[in-house]
Recover the amino acids of this structure.
C-alpha cells in the first residue's frame, strides 16, 4: 500500500463511520469493491489490473453461494451493489483520467460484458449445485482454491500462466515473467475462503449475508498483508459498529503512526544495509555477515508488523478490531513461543486446519497408538512445511519450513526433559531463571536469524555459501 | 463449577503437562503463557470430550476461547447446559 492509498482509505473509513447506519453497510460494501481495484498494482498483461480484482470478487461470491444458508432479502441487493461498483469501475474507461480506480484503462465494454456473463452463469450453477451433494461440491471448491494457490506460488507454473494470459491478451509470450502475475492479496483471500469452505464441509452452519462476507474477505486494510481474521469474529464487530468515532480515533491514529514509522522509516532504512539476494556475496567477514542477517531480520519484522499496525489502526477507524499479528516475537525465550507471536493469525489458521485435525486424528487412534514424539515430528514438520510453501513453492522456502519444523520438534523434546528443572528455577530461584531466560532468548534469536538465510536468498547454492560464511 | 475446576486442575497437572508437583492456579494463563503447547492443547480437548462430553472444535483451540482453568470450566458448564 502506498502512503496515498493509506490516506484515502483512512478518510473513506472515517466518512463511512459517521454515516447513518442504514446507508453505512451498503456504502461500505461499495467502497470495499472500489478499493480492491484501487489497491491492485499495475500488471504488464493488458487489462489484468482490472481482471485480477474482478476474479477475486467472483471467487468470493461463488464461495459464499456454495456455503451460505443466508435467506436474507438483502443478499440480492448486496449483489446489485457489488455489480454496480464493478460497473462503475468499468465505466471509468469513458473518463479520460489515468490511474483513477485502475492503474490502466479498464477493458472494452464487450469484453467486460462477456466476463460478467460468465460470472453470472457460474453463480447460477453454484446456486443450483449448493443443495446437491454439498460435501462433494465443497471439497471441489477446497481443491480448486489449493490448486489456484499452487499455480500462483510455483515459479515455473506462474510463468506458464503469464504466457497463457499474454497469449489470450494478444501480447507476446516471449516477454512473460513471474512478476507479471501480481494478483493482490490472493494468498490471504484464499485462506479466508478456505476456512469457510472447510468449516461448512465439517457441518458448521454458515449464514453470513453476502455483503458482510465480501467486506470480511476483501476488507481493504487487511487485503494485501493480513491479518487473517475469522469470519465469525469479524461479523460480530461489523454488526456492532457505532457512529461514535471519538473513542477509536486516537487509538487508530496512534497505531497507524507506529505502523508508518516501522514500515517507512525503520524497515526502509534497514533495507539499505540488510542482507538481500543481490548483496549476499558481498558479506565476507562473519561479523558483517551476521550484522547483515540481523538487519534483514529486523527489516522484515518492522516491514510486516508495520503493515499489520496500519491495517489494525485503519480497522479501528470503522470499528473493526482486527486480531494482533506480532507480539515482540524476537524477545521470546524459545522457538515455540516465537511462533506463537510471529505472524500469529497465519500460524493460528494452519493450527486450526492442519495441525489440530492431524494431531486429533493421530491421538484418537487407540487401536494403533503412535509414540507422541513421532506425532509431534510429523505434525510440526507438516505445519511448518506448509507455512514455508505458502510463501512460495521453492526449495529454499521448503528448507526454511523444515528448519523451523526441526527447531520446534527439538525444542519440544528438550522441554519435556528439562521442564521440571525450569519450573523449579521459575518458582524458587528467580535470579537463575532470569539468566536462563536471557540465554534461551539469545539462542532462539540466533536460530531464527540463521533461518532467514533460506527465506531471503532464493538460490540454494548462494544460501549455503552465505551460511558457511557465518562461522 | 468448583468441582469442574478441581477435576481439570488434577487432570492437567497429571496427564497433560505431566508435572504433578507443580502449583497450578485456576486463574493462571495456560495457553498464552506457553504452559500448554499446541500438542498438549489437542490432548486437553480430547480429555474434556472424554470426561465432560463437551466438544471443542479445532479452530477454537486458542487463548481467545479459553486461557485459564476457570475459563475452561465455564465453557464446559455453558456447553453442558446448552447441550452443544
Amino acid at each position: 500500500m502506498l502512503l496515498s492509498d493509506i490516506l484515502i482509505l483512512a478518510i473513506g473509513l472515517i466518512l463511512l463511520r459517521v454515516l447513518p447506519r442504514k446507508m453505512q453497510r451498503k456504502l461500505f460494501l461499495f467502497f470495499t469493491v472500489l478499493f480492491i481495484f484501487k489497491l491492485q498494482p499495475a500488471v504488464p498483461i493488458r487489462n489484468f489490473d482490472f481482471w485480477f480484482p474482478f476474479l477475486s470478487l467472483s471467487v468470493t461470491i461463488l464461495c459464499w453461494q456454495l456455503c451460505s444458508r443466508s435467506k436474507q432479502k438483502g443478499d440480492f441487493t448486496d449483489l446489485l451493489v457489488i455489480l454496480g461498483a464493478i460497473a462503475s469501475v468499468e465505466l471509468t474507461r469513458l473518463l479520460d483520467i489515468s490511474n483513477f480506480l485502475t492503474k490502466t484503462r479498464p477493458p472494452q465494454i464487450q469484453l467486460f460484458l462477456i466476463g460478467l456473463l460468465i460470472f453470472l452463469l457460474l453463480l447460477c450453477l453454484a446456486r443450483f449445485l449448493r443443495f446437491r451433494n454439498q460435501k462433494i461440491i465443497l471439497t471441489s471448491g477446497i481443491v480448486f482454491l489449493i490448486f489456484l494457490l499452487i499455480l500462483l506460488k510455483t515459479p515455473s507454473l506462474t510463468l506458464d500462466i503469464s504466457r497463457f494470459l499474454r497469449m489470450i491478451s494478444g501480447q507476446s509470450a516471449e516477454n512473460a515473467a513471474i512478476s507479471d502475475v501480481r494478483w493482490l492479496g490472493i494468498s490471504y483471500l484464499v485462506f479466508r475462503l478456505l476456512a469457510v469452505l472447510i468449516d461448512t464441509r465439517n457441518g458448521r452452519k454458515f449464514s453470513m449475508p453476502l455483503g458482510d462476507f465480501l467486506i470480511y474477505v476483501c476488507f481493504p486494510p487487511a487485503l494485501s498483508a493480513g491479518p487473517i481474521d475469522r469470519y465469525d469474529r469479524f461479523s460480530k464487530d461489523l454488526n456492532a459498529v457505532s457512529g461514535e468515532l471519538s473513542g477509536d480515533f486516537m487509538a487508530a491514529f496512534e497505531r497507524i503512526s507506529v505502523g508508518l514509522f516501522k514500515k517507512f522509516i525503520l524497515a526502509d532504512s534497514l533495507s539499505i544495509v540488510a542482507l538481500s539476494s543481490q548483496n549476499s556475496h558481498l558479506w565476507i567477514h562473519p561479523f558483517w555477515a551476521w550484522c547483515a542477517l540481523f538487519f534483514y531480520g529486523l527489516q522484515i519484522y518492522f516491514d510486516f508488523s508495520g503493515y499489520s499496525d496500519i491495517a489494525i489502526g485503519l480497522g479501528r477507524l470503522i470499528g473493526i478490531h482486527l486480531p494482533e499479528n506480532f507480539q515482540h516475537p524476537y524477545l521470546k525465550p524459545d522457538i515455540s513461543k516465537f511462533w506463537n507471536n510471529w505472524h500469529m493469525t497465519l500460524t493460528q489458521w494452519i493450527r486450526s486446519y492442519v495441525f489440530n485435525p492431524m494431531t486429533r486424528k493421530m491421538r484418537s487412534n487407540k487401536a494403533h497408538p503412535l509414540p507422541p514424539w513421532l506425532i509431534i515430528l510429523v505434525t510440526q514438520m507438516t505445519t511448518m512445511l506448509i507455512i514455508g510453501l505458502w510463501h512460495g513453492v521453492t526449495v529454499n522456502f521448503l528448507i526454511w519450513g523444515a528448519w523451523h519444523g526441526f527447531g520446534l520438534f527439538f525444542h519440544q523434546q528438550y522441554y519435556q526433559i528439562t521442564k521440571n528443572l525450569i519450573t523449579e528455577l521459575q518458582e524458587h530461584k528467580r535470579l537463575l531463571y532470569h539468566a536462563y531466560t536471557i540465554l534461551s532468548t539469545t539462542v532462539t534469536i540466533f536460530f531464527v536469524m540463521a533461518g532467514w538465510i533460506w527465506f531471503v536468498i532464493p538460490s540454494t547454492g548462494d544460501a549455503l555459501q552465505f551460511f558457511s560464511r557465518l562461522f | 463449577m468448583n468441582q469442574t475446576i478441581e477435576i481439570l486442575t488434577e487432570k492437567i497437572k497429571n496427564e497433560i503437562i505431566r508435572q504433578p508437583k507443580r502449583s497450578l492456579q485456576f486463574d493462571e494463563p495456560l495457553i498464552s503463557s506457553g504452559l500448554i503447547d499446541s500438542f498438549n492443547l489437542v490432548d486437553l480437548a480430547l480429555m474434556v470430550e472424554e470426561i465432560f462430553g463437551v466438544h471443542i472444535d479445532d479452530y477454537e483451540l486458542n487463548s481467545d476461547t479459553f486461557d485459564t482453568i476457570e475459563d475452561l470450566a465455564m465453557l464446559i458448564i455453558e456447553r453442558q447446559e446448552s447441550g452443544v
Observations:
- The domain at 2-82 of chain B is CATH 1.10.1200.10 (Non-ribosomal Peptide Synthetase Peptidyl Carrier Protein; Chain A).
- Chain B has three helices and no strands.
- The two ends of chain B are 18 Å apart (CA to CA).
- Chain B has one domain: 2-82.
